[in-house]
Design brief:
Residues 111-285 form the SGNH hydrolase-type esterase domain. By secondary structure, the chain is α/β, with parallel strands linked by helices. It has 2 domains: 3-86; 96-301, 3-Layer(aba) Sandwich (Rossmann fold), CATH 3.40.50. Helices cover 38% and strands 16% of the residues. It is built from 10 helices and 10 strands. The protein has a 5-stranded antiparallel beta sheet with strand order 1-5-4-3-2, covered by helices on one side. Strands 7-6-8-9-10 form a 5-stranded parallel beta sheet, sandwiched between helices. Helix 1 (14-25) crosses helix 2 (66-86) and helix 4 (127-135) packs across helix 10 (282-301). The longest helix has 21 residues, at 66-86. It is globular and about 50 Å long. The protein starts with a strand and ends with a helix.
């Protein structure tokens, strides 16, 4: 067995390293994968072909070959440059100036999602933190990287929302259309017939219906789903099509970043705005994504 260690402890948080390795190595091995946790100690298993253990350093164990290692290391080097460029202090939420005249000021908004809502490539700070800092949003940020809408695991969107009981009714609810369901083999499912109130939360559509029904029943607040900026992906495209069908049924709003040509063009003009095709840096959030959420939420609450 051959080992290769790469010390990144002073450059990147271990949780983000795990995300980076999943993204960088996915094209080189079988696309199916399982993930365990994120944090100071995480584990990512690529179908038994490559394993990464994260403690104080990152160790590549039983890689498929030297070529994979070389590509992964090259990718990590380029990614580190993008992250350093995009996460400079002037782009952090703490650098923002609070606007007490914002129409979002004092609004209680719950944000449910995974790595993009969390800010996996932005030191855990996303558009949610930007809106709190610049617009005075009182945010409930329910975000865990690598999680899915579907499933009964404690980390799933469905389970986390079920366990969340705010003391004050939220003014709005925002949900990320996860890119992880298709990658982790969650079945898409089917839209329930009108009048049905029990849904199959082991499917992605059933999970969305479960989430929307709970928010409408318990909180009665407007709902915004957002899609992610992602390169063409058949599973995700099918999920977006299903989301639009669900929109006709439940009348929630959609912020379609996936189909936003202007955002895609602006992203190309801002080196360092994205870690990869899906995960923004603080620059990407503050300059490109947060203004879109500010506008969408302003319209939602008008």
């Amino acid at each position: 067995m051959q080992y290769l260690s790469l010390e990144l402890k002073n450059v990147l948080p271990a949780a983000l390293v795990g995300e980076m390795l999943v993204i960088l190595l996915r094209p080189l091995v079988d696309n199916r994968l399982s993930m365990w946790g994120c944090g100071s100690r995480g584990r990512v298993l690529f179908c038994g072909q490559a394993e990464v253990l994260m403690t104080k350093s990152v160790r590549f164990v039983e890689m498929v070959g030297a070529g994979v290692t070389a590509v992964a290391l090259t990718g990590l080097a380029h990614a580190t440059v993008r992250l350093a460029r995009g996460n400079q202090p002037q782009y952090a939420p703490g650098a923002a100036t609070l606007d007490p005249t914002s129409p979002l000021y004092g609004k209680r908004i719950v944000f449910l999602g995974s790595s993009i809502t969390y800010g996996a490539a932005a030191h855990g700070r996303s558009f949610v933190d930007d809106l709190a800092a610049s617009d005075g949003v009182i945010a409930g940020k329910l975000a865990i990287s690598g999680t899915t809408l579907a499933g009964h695991e404690a980390s799933s969107y469905v389970s986390r929302l079920a366990a969340f009981h705010p003391a004050v009714t939220p003014d709005a609810f925002v949900c990320q259309l996860s890119t992880n369901d298709g990658r982790q083999g969650k079945p898409l499912g089917m839209i329930a017939e009108p009048g049905v109130t029990q849904f199959d939360a082991d499917t992605t559509i059933g999970a969305i219906e479960t989430i929307v029904s709970r928010v409408q029943r318990d909180w009665g607040c407007p709902i915004l789903f957002y899609t992610c900026l992602l390169q063409p992906d058949a599973d995700y495209s099918a999920l977006i099509a299903a989301l639009r069908q669900l929109q006709a049924k439940y009348h929630f709003a959609i912020l379609d970043l996936h189909g936003d040509a202007a955002l895609a063009s602006a992203t190309k003009q801002h080196p360092g705005a994205m870690f990869d095709d899906a995960h923004p840096t603080q620059l990407g959030y503050s300059k490109l994504w947060t203004p879109l959420f500010r506008q969408a939420l302003g319209n939602l609450l008008a």
